[in-house]
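Researcher: Next sequence.
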Amino acid sequence: MDDSLCTIYVTAGSREEALRIARSLVEEKLVACVNVFGDVVSVYRWRGACHEDPEVVLIAKTTAERRDAAMLRIVALHSYDCPCVTSWPILAAHEDYEQWVRESVRE
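Model: Next structure:
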């Protein structure tokens, strides 16, 4: 069992979609917490053209053990054809916070 912590970074097309995804992940105990940030602009290439669109960013905290299930759930809930769903390890965190994350996602 890998109970190291990690973050999951996601972009969504609207605040409503971001909150729907966030609530599902927390209610299903796939993540402990999701921060939702609005008013970001993403510049990207899609199907041969450069685009610039407003988006909302989600940053979720979970354990490495729950990461893959959380990422699959995000893709299933997401409206995009190719959503940005990435993850990176949390190298250090306050001990009490680490424990809270682990307890929050325990099945």
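Model: The chain has a mean pLDDT of 97. The radius of gyration is 14 Å.
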